[in-house]
Amino acid sequence: MMTFNYIFTNFIIEENLDIDLDKLKIFCYNQRKVNLGREISNYGGWQSKDLLITEEILPLMQSVDTILKNIHRYVGITENIKLDNMWININQKSNFNTSHIHAGSLFSGVFYVSTPKNCGKIVFKNNNSFLWFMVYTP
Fold first, then answer.
1. φ, ψ at 43 (rounded to 5°)
2. I want to staple 45 with a disulfide (CB 3.0 to 4.6 A). Which of 22, 39, 75, 95 is the partner?
3. How distant is the alpha carbon of residue 105 from its chain centre?
4. What is the DSSP string of the chain?
5. pLDDT tens-digit profile of 4-53?
6. What's the predicted TM-score (pTM) here?
């Protein structure tokens, strides 16, 4: 009889946050005016450099911190892990972010301030090469 055991699992958490999105959107577009940005995973579009804590993004950071604490309790992490960095992506039609990883991150997240209708979708890929092997024991 074959036994199926999960040993390497992933999860995705979705949460709606009670944040002033209009204020956050204005902040993002103002950042694009004063910040040359960088090119890392963005194809077209604009990506800010890592953000400093400001009054405008503090509510978002506090919400993310609360979510992280809940995840820690749920998965049994006892170390104090905190939000390390965040940045802004602003994409227009035909712009996108290429497939990439966040090396060294225990958790990664994305928060959409605004999305137009039919804007595309986020895609997650599992790069665990172990999935390509099957273990057979007689």
1. -110, 105
2. 95
3. 10
4. -------S------------HHHHHHHHHHHHHH---B-SSEESSEEPPPPPP-TTTHHHHHHHHHHHHHHHHHHT--S---------EE--TT-EE-S---TT-S------S---TT----------GGGG------
5. 787 777 788 899 999 999 999 999 999 999 989 999 999 999 999 999 98
6. 0.81
